[in-house]
Amino acid sequence: MAIALSGIKGVVLAGGLGTRMYPLTKITNKHLLPIYNKPMIYYPIEKLVSVGIREIMVVTGGNHAGEFLRLLGNGRDFGLKELHYTYQEGEGGIAEALNLTRDFVKQDRVCVMLGDNIFEDNLSKAVAKYMKIKKGSMIFLKEVNDPKRFGVPDLVNGKVVKIDEKPKVPKSKYAVTGIYLYDNSVFKITNKLKPSARGELEITDVNNAYIMKNQMYYEILSGWWTDAGTFESLHRAGNLIADNYIN
Does the predicted TM-score (pTM) go above 0.70? Predict the structure, then answer.
């Protein structure tokens, strides 16, 4: 297990109603569905633990929130110092869910992971690099075949100059994955956000606010990555884990 890091906490966003995966999500939360030999929620928690984060908050929602407590308990099975929970009412967006963790994060930095992002890389070196930066944010990019489905960075001279959400004409072949590192000023940004056209507080707007301040950094994932928010991607995630686990 990695040496415990101080000054940074972990957040796993596992809310939403999972309507794209109905009827599976009629009886449970999407993030509790199995990916190969573990519940989906185990993977982001284990990734956070692997870089030395020992205090984590899970943001959940919907009708099955209590199942997270029954499954994860106090987090001791993961080697955590503390495992916290909070509840997001409705589907107000990723940035709204992040804002709910303000009192947990306090003055520390935060590593945020979407609960349905499954990936190969160990983030220890990237997090260590980020902790040496005085202030700002770091995102993780991955080359994909269908960037139109994601937030897409516009890269100019090694910098992210803008992120476009689900663009019709992508300006790069990269997707912004659901892994984010933020300093404490992120909560000043989320407080000022206005809902998008779909009525949510968007994480892309948070990231663009850091870009405007010239405080955005990025790393490119070298291993495989997938979300697991559809039947197809859930199946793909299971196959990737199975191949990696067996080999």
Answer: yes
